[in-house]
Structure formats: structure tokens, C-alpha cells
Write a structure and sequence with these properties.
By secondary structure, the chain is mainly α. It has one domain (3-153). The protein has helices at residues 3-53, 59-110, 119-153. This is MICA1 monooxygenase.
Amino acid sequence: YPTWKRTLARRARESQMKRFCRAQAIQRRLEEIEVTFRELEQQGIKLEKLLRDENESLADQQTQWTNQLLYLVQKKNNLMTEESDLMIAVQELKLEEQQCQLDEKLRSYMNKEDTLKTAEDEKAEQEILKQLVEVVNKRNVLIQLQEEKRLSEL
């Protein structure tokens, strides 16, 4: 078993573990965001009730509650933006995993001697190459989407 094949296999395992760790971190953050959403929603409901029920309360108190409510809405909007960024990252991870699997399959076909390849092998190699190009294009679209979001936020 040549050294370069062992090196490729080790690198593939390492990159797979990195993707797995990133996916776990993203999942944890999404769960944290969900919990925070619920907390913000409960706080917002309380503030809205205070604003509606307390007609005779001081104007300063109502202004303070309104400001708190606006702060909660802003915080929720920021969390929604982060959540959408994380969802894009999840899609990117899936495409990255797909690309690695296709790379591995393509490499196995390309390492085969041309004289030993059957017509089915060549057809499969072309199909994998076509799928690989599609995955790369999808990843490119996601990167462009992220860049557009970043620029629009500036």
C-alpha cells in the first residue's frame, strides 16, 4: 500500500472529523438560538401585556417598556440573521462532504489503468465528474450568497 494512498486516506479522515466537529458546533449553536428565541418571546409577551394593561402608568415607564421591547426585537433579528448564516454553513458542510466522497470515487476510477477500464467504468467516471462539477457550482452559489449578505449588511 503506497505511502501516498495512506496519506490521502489519513487526510480524508482528518477533514471528515473536522467537518463533523463543525457540524456539531453548528447544531449546538442552533439549539442555543432556539432556546434564546423562546426566552425573548416570553419577555416580549410580558412587556406587551404591561404596555397594553397599564394605561394609567407613567409615560417614563411606558417609554422604558417600549425601549425594552424594541431591544428584544433587535436581539431577535440578530439571532435570526445568525441562524440563517448557520443554515447556509450546514448546507456548505453537506456539499463539502459530498464533494469529498465524489473526489474519492473519481480518484479510484482515475487510478485504474486505461487499458483495464470498461465502457461502464468510463461512463461512471464521466458521471461522477459531472456530479462533482454540480456540487462545486452549488458551493459557489452558497459562497456568493454569503458574500452578498455580508455586503448588504455593510
